[in-house]
Design goal:
It is a single chain. With about 290 residues, this protein is an alpha+beta fold. It is about 35% helix and about 25% strand. It folds into two domains: about 180 residues, Deoxyuridine triphosphatase (dUTPase) (Deoxyuridine 5'-Triphosphate Nucleotidohydrolase, Chain A), CATH 2.70.40; about 90 residues, no CATH class. Strands 1, 2, 3, 4, 5, 7, 8, 9, 10, 11 and 13 form an eleven-stranded antiparallel sheet that branches. A two-stranded antiparallel sheet has the order 6-12. A hairpin with a 2-residue loop joins strand 4 and strand 5.
Length: about 290
């Protein structure tokens, strides 16, 4: 264990840092400058009392080989990591962690992921640990979840200890590797249904096809909007009287007061929703063509 990794309680920044406790955003910035706490480091990601972690393109999906669990590479599709319903994906963060011997960390998933039916699992990071961090995400919902590479997926909360630990973590080379057994055909099962097999390549191909289908549906929707606008324009050019009558009706001329109120509430809302939908559809099409 090198001296450059050991941090005594009396070295490093002292101003505003308690002898022991959770590091605030200012404490995280100060420690990162002295100890390379996180690499790469962006002070803007130090928020409140934690540091925001972002998804990298390196991900693995949980698969089953007989009675043994394993992980297969899960490459991004159009810059997004695809998590199918029921799938568990291990996502490495862009950031690597470099903890002194008197600092430990807890990795916590973002609340927005839980709100989308995705659970996030991780454990604490031991003092002296150096290397990448990963979070295990399981999609409990019924629809596929897409996580763009570079988006935040978790936070690291750092705990300053009262003194350096006696034995620091030796590093990623000595990280334990555990293979868990699952129920097989010759094992005692409480459920007669077979254990589902998750094929990483098939899941990736399915996600790519679904992405292509979504793109085509968006293009068709834009075409329908264009056809509707062209139809209204032709109607006005060919029969201006009918067009003006339609405008007067929308304006509420010659209709009961209650209908005027309904038109006044619904028409602006529908126009706003249509314009917003067109804008979002154009953004999706341009983003896909850009990739």
């Amino acid at each position: 264990m090198g001296a450059n990794r050991r941090a005594r309680p009396d070295d490093g920044p002292q101003h505003g840092v308690l002898p022991a406790g959770i590091l605030t955003d200012e404490d995280i910035v100060a420690y990162a400058r002295h100890h390379d706490l996180i690499v790469p480091f962006d002070p803007e990601d130090a928020k409140y009392a934690s540091y925001e972690l972002h998804a990298s393109a390196n991900a693995q999906i949980l698969i089953y080989h007989g009675e043994v669990t394993a992980h297969a590479p899960l490459p991004p599709v159009n810059g997004e990591l695809i998590i199918a319903p029921g799938a568990t994906v291990r996502i490495d963060t862009i950031e690597s962690i470099r903890l002194p011997d008197n600092v430990m960390a807890n990795i916590i998933g973002l609340g927005q992921l839980y709100a989308c039916g995705v659970t996030v699992a991780n454990t604490y990071v031991d003092p002296g640990s150096r290397g990448p961090i990963y979070l295990a995400l399981t999609n409990l919902g019924r629809r596929t979840v897409r996580i763009p590479v570079g988006e935040p997926i978790g936070r690291a909360q750092f705990h300053l200890l009262g003194r350096a630990v006696r034995t620091a973590h030796p590093g990623p080379v000595f990280r334990r590797s555990i293979q868990l057994r699952v129920n097989g055909e010759d094992s005692a099962q409480t459920d007669s249904r077979p254990v589902p097999l998750i094929d990483a390549s098939a899941a990736t191909q399915l996600a790519a096809r679904q992405e292509s289908l979504d793109h085509r549906l968006t293009v068709v929707k834009l075409a329908l909007y264009a056809m509707a606008g062209a139809w209204l324009g032709l109607l006005w050019a060919i029969a201006p009287t009918s067009g003006n009558t339609m405008l007067r009706f929308i304006n509420g001329d010659g209709v009961p007061d209650i209908l005027k109120l309904i038109l006044g509430l619904t028409v602006p809302t529908l126009i706003t929703l249509c314009f917003r939908d067109v804008r979002n559809s154009l953004t999706q099409v341009s983003r896909r063509r850009g990739t």
